[in-house]
Amino acid sequence: MYKRQIKDQVNGNGASTGEKIVTSDHPSPQKCTLGKGVRAAVQRYNMAVLALARESELTDLDGNYGRLHEKGLRVAALMASLENEGIIELRHWARAQEIVERWRLYAHRLYEQVTELDVSPQAEIEAKVVKAVTRWQGTDRYPDGLSAADIARFLRGLGTGEARFHAEQLVAAGVLASHKKERALRYYVPGADEGES
């Protein structure tokens, strides 16, 4: 154990400033050793998680799986150094394994949240705009593409202003193109034969 001392801080005149100074000697490094059966338990755990990683189609967490046994051993060493003079016993490893298994579960949950593809409402509307333009451009009724008012007629609940906004967002992204025809701005899918007059 290391010692900690708390003293009053004094100024140049020797009078107390009212503040405290905390000093401590630094603990010397402690060597940890593996108790009976711990090395084999760590190796069994490592082989088991590596087998799980090999069997899984998900490869993004393979690096995490490869280090779980090391993280567990570090946790076990910390527990043993605090209460068992650095001797890592099976009870320390068992508790550490519970902890890293919880970390493994959390890694999967985080991965699922990060890779979950929730489509935003704006993306849904933009997909509908593209679908309407693609379907109707170049037809006899809309040979030069669709105006914002035309798009709004095909998409229930969408006003002309909103249709124009989303169409312009798609033009800026290069998904749609626009040109002026008969005093109206018309939108079309570039590269398609129809609608490029």
Question: Can you walk me through this structure?
Answer:
Helices cover 52% and strands 15% of the residues. The chain has helices at 38-55, 62-83, 90-115, 121-136, 148-154, 160-172; strands at residues 4-10, 16-24, 33-34, 87-88, 177-181, 184-188. The strands form 3 sheets. It has a two-stranded antiparallel sheet with strand order 1-2. Helix 1 (38-55) packs antiparallel against helix 2 and helix 4 (121-136) crosses helix 6. The radius of gyration is 34 Å and the shape is elongated. The protein starts with a strand and ends in a 9-residue tail after the last strand.
Summarize the structure.
This protein is of the alpha+beta class and 197 residues long.
Supply the key terms.
single chain; 197 residues; alpha+beta; Arc Repressor Mutant, subunit A; 2 domains; two-stranded antiparallel sheet; two-stranded parallel ribbon; 6 strands; 52% helix; elongated
